[in-house]
Structures are given as C-alpha cells and as structure tokens.
Design goal:
By secondary structure, this protein is mostly helical. It is built from 4 helices and no strands.
C-alpha cells in the first residue's frame, strides 16, 4: 500500500510540474499579448489547484501508511505552500485589470512550478 501511494505521489508531482509550466506559459502569452485570460485558463488553474489537493492527500496518506520524505519536513512545507498560495493568488488576481490578472496567475504558476521541483528534489 505504501509503495502504491509513494508511486502515485511521485507521479502526481511530475504531472503538476508540467501543468504549472504550461499554465505559466499560457498566462505569460496572455500577459504579453495584453489579453484577458480566458475562462479556460481560469478553469485549468482551478483544476491544477484540485490536483494539488489530491497530491497533498496522497502525501498525507503515504505518511500515515508509514512512509516519509527523504528530505524531512521541508518536503511537506512545499506541499503546504502550494495548497495555500494557489487559491490566495487566484483570489488576489480577481478584479477589473485583465493584464494584472494574467500576470498574477502566470507568476503564481511559475512560482509553484519551482516549489514542485524543489519538493521532488527533497522528497
């Protein structure tokens, strides 16, 4: 059971890196083109947030099943950061300025992609 959870947790981390980088590129495209982010972008951002929540739950389940991160508590800090930072950035970005929204959401995607990579390296 622990090995299955660890595999799913590791696989999910790599999926999230790809997801965050693609969203970062997509949001940067909207920002530099001076375009409003689409509903599809926002929905994809929220899907990434849902995947982060599942990823965190898989990590907790693996921890309860007897596993643990090789890098210690820092690995868990990256997971907690992502689940708190992404919704905060989403709520902060809401407003009338469409360029600001694109910048904040793209920037948040790039920031969490770095956190995901650091989490993989500590985990």
């Amino acid at each position: 059971m622990e090995e299955s959870l660890a595999f799913l947790h590791a696989y999910g981390a790599r999926v999230l890196v790809a997801f965050a980088v693609l969203l970062g590129l997509w949001g940067a495209y909207h920002y530099f083109r001076n375009q409003r982010v689409s509903g599809g972008f926002r929905a994809t951002y929220l899907i990434m947030l849902g995947i982060v929540a599942v990823q965190d739950l898989l990590g907790l389940a693996a921890l309860v099943a007897g596993g643990g991160p090789r890098g210690g508590i820092l690995h868990m800090v990256y997971g907690a950061f992502a689940i708190l930072f992404l919704p905060g950035a989403y709520l902060y970005s809401r407003g009338d300025d469409h360029r600001r929204e694109a910048l904040i959401l793209a920037g948040a995607s790039w920031i969490v992609s770095i956190a995901f990579i650091r989490g993989i390296s500590t985990g």
